[in-house]
Amino acid sequence: MLTQFGQVASVKLVTDKETGKRKGYGFIEMPEKEQAKAAITALNEKEVYGRKIALSEAVEKEQERPGGFQRLKRDFRNSGSNEEIDGNKW
C-alpha cells in the first residue's frame, strides 16, 4: 500500500513490553519526505482491513519538551536531593 508512494525503509509495530501484544500503532520510515507526505495525504483516515487508519508525521520526543525541562526535572528528582527550586522541594 505505502510502496505505491515510494520506498519504505523500515516498519516498526509497537508492542506492549509486558504482554507482547501490539498496541495498535507503529512507525514507518520513508527516505523521501515528499513521498511520505503524499502517502499521509492520500491514506489518512482511509479504511484498511475494516479499520480506519490515522497517519501523521512523527515528532521527536525532545521537540515536545522545549529545552529538555521535563527530563532535567525528572533526573534532578531522582538524584536524592532535598534542594528547593522554584518553590518545589526535590
- CATH topology call of the domain at 1-55: Alpha-Beta Plaits
Rounded mean pLDDT score: 77
Q: How would you characterize the largest beta sheet?
A: 2 strands, antiparallel
Characterize the overall form: globular
The largest sheet has its strands arranged as 1-2
Summarize the structure.
With 90 residues, this protein is of the alpha+beta class. It has helices spanning 33-43, 61-64, 69-77; strands spanning 10-15, 22-29, 47-48, 51-52, 84-85, 88-89.
Explain what this protein looks like in three dimensions.
By secondary structure, the chain is of the alpha+beta class. The protein has a domain at 1-55: Alpha-Beta Plaits. Helices cover 27% and strands 24% of the residues. The chain contains three helices and six strands, in the order E-E-H-E-E-H-H-E-E. It has helices at 33-43, 61-64, 69-77; strands at 10-15, 22-29, 47-48, 51-52, 84-85, 88-89. Strands 1-2 form a two-stranded antiparallel ribbon. The chain is globular. It starts with 9 loop residues before the first strand and ends with a strand.
What would the keywords be for this entry?
Alpha-Beta Plaits; 90 residues; two-stranded antiparallel ribbon; alpha+beta
Produce the secondary structure layout.
Elements: E1 10-15, E2 22-29, H1 33-43, E3 47-48, E4 51-52, H2 61-64, H3 69-77, E5 84-85, E6 88-89
Antiparallel strand pairs: 1-2, 3-4, 5-6
